[in-house]
Amino acid sequence: MYNNEEETLFLEETILDDNTYTYLLFLNSDKVKRITYSYDVKLIEKAHKFPLLIAINIILLLIISFFYTLRVTKPISRIVDKIIDLSNGKYLKPEANKSIYYDVEECLNQLSDRLYSNKQEREKLETMREEWISNISHDIKTPLTSIIGNAEIIADTQYEINDEIREKRCNTIINKSEYIKTLVEDLNLSTRLKSNTLILNKKKINIVSLIRHVLIEIINDEKYNDGNISFNYSDEEIMLELDEDLIKRVFINLIINAYVHNTNDVKIKINIQKINENNIYISIEDNGKGVSEDELNNIFKRYYRGTNTRNKTEGSGLGMAIAHDIIKAHGGNIKATAKLKEGLKIDIRFLP
User: Which residues form a coiled coil (predicted)?
Assistant: First the structure.
């Protein structure tokens, strides 16, 4: 190729019918554009290798993805298995797996422990409930037998009984009937307290006066008139907004409980302290037999009966649970502290 400012000459060869021909081509310079192509052989060789590199990278990426997915999905599969086990009532054993989901697995282990504890608690409560049903059935059957027996004697004209014996048998029927009525009322009250269906009839009452009347009522009962009770209070008048009948029931239950679980010479101390207008502290303490740690843990549970009672055939096993639930329904706190042979102390605190 030859070019100057005016025209450009192209010199080319071609072969036709085995003959070689040379031809010249002249073009004006303004009609011609020059394009120069250049290339690097090494780059072309590398370009041929590029698909192979891509294929290798894809394979490596797939291998890495496989192992990463395996690492991620394996603990997830283990977590799913644990959840299935929990749903089937199979509780988990703690495992030291430091996986990427360690916190999740640890929470599952804690949930398993809590569910297992709840199951044990339910089983224990169910055992206590069955024992309570057995005891309450006996408690009702015994006075019913007495009621039926005395009623049959009174009704049978073949028996010749004087007025004194008739009156005695009638009183027995009345007392046994009252006892059964109390058992049924305890069960009804406990159920309503637990289900939060009991409406409190609150009004301002003097708690000192209320407890004083409770003590008078108990001491006038021949079963408890030999008791030794001391009653102390910081103020003659301590007003609280309470359901009078229910709170009266609380202190009757707690004080009588101190009697029936101890010997006749037990000393009972009742103390009321007004810390401020909205903070009233009441304690009922005895120097009796006390209770074991297991009894202390169950003292406010439904159906539970202590072992140190004077008369094992009486009592619904709901008295302490009812007292606990009534105080809680009033927004107060109640707790028990005790040791064997060192007595029992019940602390009650009414808060605003």
Answer: none
Residues in CB range of 182: below 8 A, 6 or more apart: 316
Burial class (CB in 10 A: 0-12, 13-18, 19+), 227: buried
Q: Tokens at residue 129, please?
A: 């409930």
214 closest CA partner among 176, 252, 183: 252
Distance CA(177)–CA(155), nearest Å, equals 17
Using CA atoms, how far apart are residues 309 and 346, in angstroms rounded to an integer?
A: 17
- Report pLDDT digits (tens) over 148-194: 988 888 888 777 778 888 888 898 999 889 888 888 888 888 878 87
Tens digit of each residue's pLDDT (9 = 90 or more) over 42-81: 766 666 677 777 888 888 888 888 877 777 777 777 777 7
Q: Is 290 left (phi over 0), alpha (psi -120 to 50) or beta?
A: left
List domains and CATH numbers for the chain: 2-31 (no CATH), 41-115 (no CATH), 119-194 (1.10.287.130), 203-350 (3.30.565.10)
In whole angstroms, what is the distance from residue 25 CA to residue 43 CA?
35
Residue 207's identity, in one-letter code, is I
| This model's pTM is above 0.70 | no
